[in-house]
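Worked example 4.2. Below are the chains of a multi-component assembly; read each line carefully before continuing.
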Amino acid sequence: MIPAAFEYYRPDDLQGALALLHEHGDEARVVAGGHSLIPMMKLRMAEVPHLIDLQAIDALRGITVDGNRITLGAMVTQEEIIAHEGLATLVPILREAALQIADPQVRAMGTVGGNVANGDPGNDMPGLMQCLGATFHVTGPDAAREIEARDFYEAAYMTAREDDEILTAVSFDAPNGGQSYQKQKRKIGDYATAAAAVILTREGEHCTGASIAMTNLSDVPVWAEAAGEALIGTDCGEDAVIAAINAMQEAIDPTEDNRGPVAFKRHTAGIILARAIARAWSRA
Amino acid sequence: MNDLTPDRDDRTANLKGIGSARRRVEDARFTQGKGNYVDDIKLPGMLFGDFVRSPYAHARVVSVDTSAAMALDGVVAVLTAKDLEPLGLHWMPTLAGDKQMVLADGKVLFQGQEVAYVVARDRYVAADAVELVEVEYEELPVITDPFEALNSDTVLREDLQPGADGAHGPRRHANHIFLWEEGDKTATEEVIGSADVVVEEMIYYHRTHPCPLETCGCVASMDKVNGKLTVYGTFQAPHVVRTVASLLSGIDEHNIRVVSPDIGGGFGNKVGVYPGYVCSIVASIVTGLPVKWVEDRMENLMATAFARDYWMKGRISATKEGKITALEAHVTADHGAFDACADPTKFPAGFFHICTGSYDIPVAYVGVDGVYTNKAPGGVAYRCSFRVTEAAYFIERMIEILAIELGMDAAELRRINFIRADQFPYHSALGWEYDSGDYQTAWDKALKAVDYDGLRTEQAARVEAFRRGETRRLIGIGLTHFTEIVGAGPVKNCDILGMGMFDSCEIRIHPTGSAIARLGTISQGQGHATTFAQILASEIGIPADKITVEEGDTDTAPYGLGTYGSRSTPVAGAATALAGRKIRAKAQMIAAYLLEVHDDDVEFDIDRFVVKGAPERFKTMADIAYAAYNQAIPGVEPGLEAVSYYDPPNMTYPFGAYICVMEIDVDTGEAEIRQFYALDDCGTRINPMVIEGQVHGGLTEALAIAMGQEIAYDDMGNVKTGTLMDFFIPTTWETPHYTTDHTETPSPHHPIGAKGVGESPNVGGVPAFSNAVHDALRPFGLRQSHMPHDHWRIWKAAHDLGLHG
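Applying the procedure described above to all two chains together yields the following structure tokens:
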């Protein structure tokens, strides 16, 4: 559990970090909270001769609420999200999900940017950001650009971000409606066996809008568009929920691991989604 | 006597002796980060060792090329089996009469096996050099299933003569280690064959690992000037390590000093001798410099001693009324690549034959087959006496299954089969003499405490609600009444590598009335410095706060067999009490002299000797200690010291009644512990607070084992649970509240009646948790579902019963 030797950099602005990335190419990686990358380096599964620490870059920090628009700097920690009073009111699902990530020690270090940019299918924020319809902001050597969270993930650890780009922020509109993040895990600190992010809008007894995303049930987060559509216009009753679950099952592709076989994961995914829908509906 | 004279209660309280909830004296340093563990030891010029380990579970080692590693700046040496062979150290004996490769000699037999040992100036260079050692492997067929091993043509241990006997008798197959039997097989088969009711079941107790917070490690330091070797290490048995080191190395035993500093948990993992110790000692002898080796968490889980892995096929028979008539167990024991179980030599399956449990079973038979597979060696007693948790789990599952077959309440079935209080000392069908017990009283107290009948009513109502579709959560009531066998053990039949399993205590009283006691055991968190001082305080009348307890340095401590199997209090605790009585006997003579009366005319009274019938005439122990060093007393040697080596006449038999109330979610497989009641009877209770702490810790390890903790392998012999992401260690979040309770049935043969408690909660806890899971699904037809009961396995059990529609 000792990593290979590496050079450590701690630039104090984004341009400095980008220049280092450009200079060292494939041999360089940026590190945010370090809770994914550092263990991989210690296992020598990731070889990073040049490690660029983003901790000193103030421009990547801070939570901004501008009317209905929320921007989270890439280096905002899970702990900062949990402690932020405005977010708890505007986007309760964000706090609800952050509280289910790892443990307090990890949440004090783990960042939004690292969580979404790493492309680890076990991470909770990617699915949540897809549910929220968030936009990821990345900056490369020449220009900045925006990528939709729903277009960002290509395969496990493969994303639309180029190697010479740094994810600087995520932004999204505070959603209307009822929200819920439900996660089953084996223990504190574990990734999800199955997790569901659900946002529902409601007029009277009818669902007028639905967004559903699932976590750790495929090699990428799964925004289950058809599952959401299955709820729209319904009363989110038993039949509608079954239809949503069936649509979700079409979209996920779990694999067997120590958390259990595929049949169990599919079953659990359905249960967790049903619970998230019920909770979100009760809050809508 | 006047108003200022402390009364007897105050004097007793001042001693903080037996029965006092004295605070742990160790905690001041542990809670402030001031402990001194192996990895805190830094010696001048110290080098670091690290292992090249096999990625394969079974492969031939074609070649080991160390040249690139040796070329790295800072690398001092790279050892392979070829380097150790001239010293005869490429293999080493195990505690179980087998031998084990220190470094791969021609082949590897489990993933993580030690192949080469790199020595470098710091641990970072060592880790880099490990990457540079090039090993060419030729993969061989892998066997991870012990049943397959006994039917396979693949020979794992090519070093063993085919057909030759092993350390425990005939081997019937190349991958067979031993068949060990106890009891009357013929009579058992006859009774079972003609019984009213018989149930048969395979009970698997899965492979897991003690996983102490501190991993294993050592610092070896050879002083070439004076010829003395010092080894600091995470040793649960430092004196045995010294003897083994002397026998292996040829260094005279007086020239070896073994020191166990503070140890961060052992749980059996730190009893045996590992290749890391041997290689570090060799490296220090070769280089003349100290060499440190400390394994990381993955190495600890992958390569050092595992626990359990017992496939226990049982048959139990009973009359129609539920009186048990016979028990039979046939165990297939997966020992991994080498038989490195840490058991007393004559007991290759430990004390598994305590498996008749708390019940009066007239006839029984046990047979245990030890088998080699391509898994890590071990088979240690993980927070239990030798194979006792396996035995307790086996009988407590068999009882539950028998209750189902009989249509009887499992609490009642236990009650009518208990060994009665008037039957002690009780001779079991498998050869043990249970020293004492009162099971009915404990059982009734436990059932009443949890309102057992009320729980059954609630459970039945929940089942009805479930059937009506109103809930998806079921209630399980997990019952266990366990009997342990601890305190190994009588030298006549208990030894490790020929060393009898006595233990020892040496006491020196200082002139001003304080004392130091040294023991042959070694605390790994048990709190010996706290509790052994309490035993002495009560025995010799010196306050516990004025008694230092020291263990673990073989140059100063008397010889002992160490701490594991709940043996410290039963054996070393007895030695402590008896050494204290020797002190007291001499103190009596000194007191009589000082008081100018005959020896028989004074008597011990809490903290002093008083003249019989004249309590105002007394000498305190402080007075007596001073006199022992400062006054010429005719016929009495100066000084006040004693040593006692205690060979226990029997084991002790702690017992307990545990009840777990659990709710399980049949859809997600999640389990919630709603209530856990633990009644322990460990005989005389030395420190109720320490006992409670032991019970909490042991129950939490039991929770881990029952509900998720395992060492799992894939078909290629890869360890699937090699990190704490997958290997379950409960945090405060997963740990439920425990209610502790007790009865007190002193051991009749132990000087203070104590029996040991550290391991009871693991022995009793595992079946209590597991039985709760089973009991929740029992109304729907579940008989047996193997541990660990993690989410998907509970889900699968429910699924197989058709509970998912």
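Take a moment to check your reading of the output against the notes. The first strand of chain A starts at residue 7 and ends at 9. The mean pLDDT of chain A is 97.
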